[in-house]
Design brief:
By secondary structure, the chain is an alpha/beta fold. Among the domains are: about 10-70 and about 95-180, Rossmann fold (3-Layer(aba) Sandwich); about 185-300 and about 340-360, Argininosuccinate synthetase, chain A, domain 2, CATH 3.90.1260. The chain contains 13 helices and 14 strands. The strands form three sheets. It has a five-stranded parallel sheet, with helices on both faces. It has a five-stranded antiparallel sheet with strand order 10-9-8-13-14. Helix 3 (about 70-85) packs across helix 8 (about 245-260), helix 4 crosses helix 5 (about 130-140) and helix 10 runs antiparallel to helix 11 (about 325-340). The chain starts with 7 loop residues before the first strand and ends with a helix. About 35% of the residues are buried.
C-alpha cells in the first residue's frame, strides 16, 4: 500500500548543497509545502545564508526557522551524557549521536506549531543517522509521516544530483563539483569525517581531514595548566570563573585545539550492521571526560563507581543507536543523575601535545581519607590486624577448590 503524500514537511535544513537539493526534490516530487529548520549546534560558519537560500527556493519567511540551540545542546544532552562517562566501543565520545535527538525534537515542535504532517532529514540509507532521527520522531510523535529522500529518490550518483541542482538553479560551490573527498558532520562537541579518502582503514588519514585540532607534533612545547569546577557532575567553572555550559565547552575546545587533543581514527560497528571507518575530533570533550572521571574518583563510593562503569556501555549503545527518548535510557539517566549528587569540587589538569594529565583533585564531599591511607600512625582508624580475617574469609572458596583439586591428583 503506497504511503499518502505529505502536505507540509519540516525539513532539517543546513543550507548546504545536499539539503538544498532535498528541499527542491520535496517540492517537485510531492508538491508539498516545505518548512525549514536550521539548528546552530556550534558547527561553525554563518547560518544567515541558510535563510537566504530557503527564500530563493520559494520558502515563505514564516516557514523558515533558525535557532541557536548551543546552550540547550550542551546543558540537556552533552552534559547528561558526560555524567555517565559514555564512550561507545571504548573510544567514541558520541558527538554526532547526541545531536540528532535534539534536532528531531525541534522538528517535531515546529511541526506541531505550523500544522505539518511530515518531517524529513538528509541522512543516507546506509548510516546510523536515519535511525537516530526517525526513532526520535516516532518516540515524540508516533503518527508523524517521515520522508527520507536518500531512500526514495532514483539518483544513481552524485553527478545526477548535481545535474538536478543545475536544472533547478541551485547554486553549486566550486568545491562541491564532482565527488566530495569525504563527508563532515560538526557541532560544538566534535567533528566527524568519513567516506571516500577515508574508506580504506589501512591508509592514514590525510592532514586535510582534521578540522578541530592541530597535530600533537605541532603543539607547543610548553604545557597548559587549567582547572575545571564541578557541581552535581556538571562542569560549572573554568580556572575559578563560572561559565555557562556552551561557553565552557567552547573554551575547552579552544585549548584542546591548541594542544592537539582529541583526535581519534576509529573503525566502529554501525547499528545498521556494517563496519565504518571515521576520523573524529573531540577536543573539549576529551578534556571534560578526564576531568569528570577525576572528580568522581574522590567523590563516588566504590560500589556506585563500579556500577556506573558496568552500565555505561549499555547507556552509550542506546545513544549511539538512537534511543535517547526510550524509557530504558531515561531509567539509566535517573540512576546516573542520582550518583552525581555529591560529585562536586575542582580538578587541575595539564594539557600537553595531545595528552590530558590530571594533576590534582579536591572536593568538600571527598571520600578520600589521608588518615586511612597513610603508612604512618593512623590512630586507630584502621586496624591492620583485621585484614587477616578479611583475607581468610575471601580465600575460603579458593582454599576449598584447591583442596578438592589437590585430592584428585
Amino acid at each position: 500500500m503506497a504511503k499518502a503524500a505529505p502536505k507540509k514537511v519540516v525539513l532539517a535544513y543546513s543550507g548546504g548543497l545536499d539539503t538544498s537539493i532535498i528541499l527542491k526534490w520535496l517540492q517537485t516530487t510531492y508538491g508539498c509545502e516545505v518548512v525549514t529548520f536550521t539548528a546552530d549546534l556550534g558547527q561553525g560558519g554563518e547560518l544567515a545564508p541558510a535563510r537566504e537560500k530557503a527564500l530563493r527556493a520559494g520558502i515563505k519567511p514564516e516557514n523558515i526557522f533558525i535557532e541557536d540551540v548551543r546552550e540547550e545542546f550542551v546543558r540537556d544532552y552533552v552534559f547528561p551524557m558526560f555524567r555517565a562517562n559514555a564512550v561507545y566501543e571504548g573510544q567514541y565520545l558520541l558527538g554526532t549521536s547526541i545531536a540528532r535527538p535534539l534536532i528531531a525534537k525541534k522538528q517535531i515542535e515546529i511541526a506541531r506549531k505550523v500544522g505539518a504532517d511530515a518531517v524529513s532529514h538528509g541522512a543516507t540509507g546506509k548510516g546510523n543517522d536515519q535511525v537516530r532521527f526517525e526513532l526520535s520522531y516516532y518516540a515524540l510523535e508516533p503518527g508523524i509521516k517521515i520522508v527520507a529522500p536518500w531512500r526514495e529518490w532514483t539518483f544513481k550518483g552524485r553527478e545526477e544530483l548535481l545535474e538536478f541542482a543545475r536544472q533547478h538553479q541551485i547554486q553549486i560551490a566550486k568545491d562541491k563539483e564532482g565527488e566530495a573527498p569525504f563527508s563532515v558532520d560538526a557541532n560544538l562537541l566534535h567533528s566527524s569525517s568519513e567516506g571516500k579518502v577515508l574508506e580504506d582503514p589501512a591508509k592514514e588519514a590525510p592532514s586535510i581531514v582534521y578540522q578541530r585540532t592541530i597535530s600533537p607534533m605541532e603543539a607547543p612545547d610548553k604545557p597548559t595548566d587549567i582547572s575545571i569546577g564541578f557541581a552535581k557532575g556538571d562542569a560549572v567553572s573554568f580556572n575559578g570563573k563560572p561559565m555557562s555550559p556552551a561557553t565552557l565547552l567552547t573554551k575547552l575546545n579552544e585549548l584542546g585545539h591548541d594542544n592537539g587533543i582529541g583526535r581519534l581514527d576509529l573503525v566502529e560497528n554501525r547499528f545498521v550492521g556494517m563496519k565504518s571507518r571515521g576520523v573524529y575530533e573531540t577536543p573539549g570533550g576529551t578534556i571534560l571526560l578526564a576531568a569528570h572521571r577525576a572528580i568522581e574518583s574522590i567523590t563516588l563510593d566504590r560500589g556506585a563507581a563500579h556500577l556506573k562503569d558496568e552500565i555505561m556501555p549499555r547507556y552509550a549503545e542506546l545513544i549511539y543507536n538512537g534511543f535517547w527518548f526510550a524509557p530504558e535510557r531515561e531509567m539509566l539517566q535517573a540512576l546516573i543523575d542520582k550518583s552525581q549528587e555529591h560529585v562536586e569540587g575542582e580538578v587541575r589538569l595539564k594539557l600537553y601535545k595531545g595528552n590530558v594529565m590530571v594533576t590534582g583533585r579536591e572536593s568538600p564531599k571527598s571520600l578520600y581519607s589521608s588518615t586511612l591511607v597513610t603508612f604512618e600512625d593512623d590512630r586507630g582508624a584502621y586496624d591492620q590486624k583485621d585484614a587477616e580475617g578479611f583475607i581468610k574469609l575471601n580465600a575460603l572458596r579458593l582454599r576449598t577448590l584447591a583442596q578438592r583439586d589437590k585430592g584428585k591428583k
